[in-house]
Amino acid sequence: MPTYTLDTLCQGEAGTVSALMASGAERRRLMDIGLTPGTTVKSLFRSCSGDPTAYLIQGAVIALRREDAHTVLVRTTI
Amino acid sequence: MHMVFRHSTDKGDKKMLVALAGNPNVGKSTLFNRLTGMRQHTGNWPGKTVGIAYGHCTYKDKHYVIADVPGSYSLIALSAEEEVARDFICFAGADAVLVVCDATCLRRNLNLVLQIMEITGNVIVCVNLMDEAKRKGVWLDLPELSRRIGAPVAGLSAGKGEGIDGLLEALYNLRPRPPLELDYGMHVEYALAPLIEELESRDLPFSARWLALRLAEKDASTVKSIEENLNISPDTDPALARAMEKTECRLRERGISQTRLSDLMAARLVEKAIELCHGAVSPDDEAFSNRDRKIDAILTHKVLGYPVMIVLLALTLWITISGANYPSALLGEGLFWLGDRLQSFFSGLGVPPMIVESLFDGVWRTLAWVVAVMLPPMAIFFPLFTLLEDLGYLPRVAFNLDGFFKKCSACGKQALTMCMGFGCNAAGVTGCRIINSPRERLIAILTNNFVPCNGRFPTLIALISMFFAGSAFSLAPAFMLTGVMLLGVLMTLLTSKLLSATILRGVPSSFTLELPPYRKPRVAQVVMRSILDRTLFVLGRAVTVAAPAGLIIWGLGNITYEGVSLLSILSEALDPFGRFFGMDGVIMLAFILGLPANEIVIPIILMCYMSGSTLMDYTSLEELGVLLIENGWTATTALCVMLFSLMHWPCSTTMITIKKETGSLGYTLLAALLPTVFGLFFCFLVARLF
Q: Can you tell me the mean pLDDT for B554-565?
């Protein structure tokens, strides 16, 4: 499966987290909100202004800015 | 924001300290209120509890002190409020920790449960929102979970009060257990061994394994907290430093970098949570949230999102203004009538006129105005705002406005603290603890005063009704007030941009915002709570300030120097300054005297104009408007006063809070200077242009 960054997912598309490129506390925070390798994440909807985007992560809806989503690598079949 | 706890060695008293921990927005405060009978404010948005609230609870023969800890995803704290939560959970020495979880997404909540269980075994897992889970078709096998986790698990619907007895029984029967020992794999365990051994050789009231894990993980904030609370640091302890060196060496040999170690730990927690849930909790299913997605599709719609936001704001204000009009007049008339009766009664008793006049013309009248002008709008606005809060709309506002805040290099959560500012700026400033980056938090603190708090609403509403749109139920005043509030938001953004381009330069930091499920607001409860707790609290504060202020104004108006009252001398001295900015000396004096509470600005202005002159009864806002016009007010004056009310120094409570939160007198002064300079600039412009 090809790998993309999370921010490239279109609304309604899902992917599987393959790696995180952030480091330090930011990296740990992404993992703590549920973005650990192997988990499924789905892009739900965007804010009025186009950024941030809300993602479904392990049952919770969490908004990430484009810059932060860009540090998450996902595998997807699209 | 590190906290240091002193452990009490006195085990004589039977009170047990119980901490309520959990992810944000899982109903900790609701459970806290259920257990303690207290009324901690609850709301459907993450970051609502910023400090730690304490309450008491008795079950059978045991007494508990319950601590409501701010919500956090992890013990690796990123923001000031999460540090408060982590320090409390780790170092406050609680006898038991109730970890509150959301039944609709239990697996993700177990991450924190496991982290806490690594510190202490005395944990009860409270699976809250069972009713919501049931409605959404989520099934949970709690007995099986309890067996797997190795800790009591209690199912709850705290909002309805279901399961509280079961929880209390579990707490009553809680037996001390050793902390959880998660296996991080052969390589990590081998590396940790020297550190654990060294720490075990000391007589610590603490899990040596947990300390070793944290020291090896090297999260700066946690390490600092360990040093402050337990006085343990490799920097000052050669034996520990040697053990640390050994651990680091073993990690290096196995090619485990600092990042890799942290990843291994985080991944192990997730893996364990999956293991625990497998077969005992229904797998993540998104189908149940279809209703929420439909609402979100409208509220965050590309085209509709902003108009919906503005219409909701305008609607709230319209209901407030048109609903407050009549009760305000009624309250005013009633209180003035009562004051007159009381005054003649006391005069009849032979009380010296000086005392009667100072009490009734001074204190009573100011109080009557404050109550009449403030109480109705607050009693309508607070419940409406709380309903929106309970519904879960505020995080969507933050979500929609984040784009703007990002352009100003600020944090999207600033929209949340800004919304809190609509209630009370001091609360908004404290709320800024939810913002991770210190730079962005400072921006949010310095700009919070640009949104009008509830103390300033009535001033704005009164002036709009008097000068711009008198008739009740017309839409114009609501739209005008909406305009003023939007100007406040615009100024917040502009000032944030200005700050991040000058003294608080930097790039936006990473940002995560949970959008909680929409919850049906408990209308009756919300109305009762917001009137009883918030409205009466704010009113009480205003009254406490207004009473002495009334006395001072009366004194200033009646004490004369060479035939002229002190009030006239002061207001005349300020007059040229006031006039330059489209106002007058009395108005400037009122804003200065209104420093303790913005609520009393309008009453002071009225008192000043009336002082020494005939007594006047409160009949209607329109008639008060006539009084203002007699004293030289025009629509331009009113506009300037509104602008200055929106943008001037914060009230004293807010300033003290800013000093406390920033620890800097300089930033406190800047927070006062920024809005004042902008306010005067706008007033000057308006006064010259119109």
A: 84
Question: Mean pLDDT lowest for which of A10-14, B257-261, B273-277, B474-478?
Answer: B474-478
The amino acid sitting at A51 is: D
Tell me if B511 and A64 make a contact (CB, 8 A cut-off).
yes
- Does residue B345 share a domain with residue B206? no
Minimum-distance CB partner of B406 among A39, A51, A61: A51
Q: Are B108 and A34 in contact (CB under 8 A)?
A: yes
Buried/exposed code over B339-376 (b: 16+ C-beta within 10 A; e: otherwise): beeebeebeeeeeeeeebebbbbbbbbbbbbbbbbbbb
Helical residues (DSSP H) of B424-475, grouped into ranges: 425-431, 438-447, 457-467
A29, A45, A49 ranked by CB distance to B512: nearest: A29
Nearest to B406 among A23, A40, A65 (CB): A65
Q: Which two tokens stand for residue A58?
A: 């392990």
Q: Is residue B273 domain-resident?
A: no
| Residues in chain A, total | 78
Q: Which of B166, B163, B169 is nearest to B27 (CA)?
A: B163
| Counted domains in chain A | 1
Parallel/antiparallel/unpaired status of strands B123-128 and B96-102 = parallel
Residue type, A46: R
Residue B291 lies in a domain: no
pLDDT digits (tens, 9 = 90+) for A33-44: 889 888 899 999
Residues B165 and B218 grouped into a single domain: no
Of the candidates A27, A30, A54, the beta carbon closest to that of B399 is on: A54
Is B325 found in the same domain as B231? no
Chain B positions in Cβ-Cβ contact with residue A70 (cut-off 8 Å): none
Rounded Cα distance between B39 and B535, Å, is: 14
Mean pLDDT value across chain B:
88
Which residues of A lie closer than 8 Å to B, measured between beta carbons?
20, 22-34, 36-37, 39-40, 42, 44-52, 54, 56-65, 67-68
Distance from CA of B308 to the nearest CA of A (A): 11
pLDDT at B376: 87
Q: Is B275 on the interface with A (CB under 8 A)?
A: no
Interval B54-71: pLDDT, tens? 889 999 989 999 999 988
Q: What is the pLDDT of residues A28-67, one digit of tens each?
A: 889 888 898 888 999 999 998 888 999 999 888 999 999 9
| pLDDT tens digits along B624-645 | 788 889 889 999 999 999 999 9
Cβ contact B301–A48 (<8 Å): yes
Confidence of residue B285 (pLDDT cuts 50, 70, 90): low
Q: Check whether B610 has a pLDDT greater than 80.
A: no
User: Rg of the Cα trace of chain A?
Assistant: 11
CB contact under 8 Å between B512 and A25, yes or no, is no
Which candidate, B115, B110, B140, places its Cα nearest to that of B125?
Answer: B110
The residue range of the domain holding B192 is 186-254
Tokens representing residue B231 in the block: 């006085």
**B74 touches A at CB < 8 Å:** yes
Closest Cα in chain A to B219 = A25
Question: pLDDT, tens digit, for every residue of B17-54?
Answer: 999 999 988 888 889 989 988 766 666 556 566 678 88
Q: How many CB pairs under 8 A join A and B?
A: 133
Residue of B nearest to A44 (CA): B293
Strands A14-20 and A72-75: antiparallel
Task: Give the burial string for B44-57 (b: 16+ CB within 10 Å, else e).
Answer: bbbbbbbebbebeb
- Cα distance from B397 to chain A (closest Cα, Å)? 9
Q: Are residues B161 and B190 in the same domain?
A: no
Residues 242-261 of B with CB under 8 A from A: 259
d(CA A33, nearest CA chain B) in Å:
7
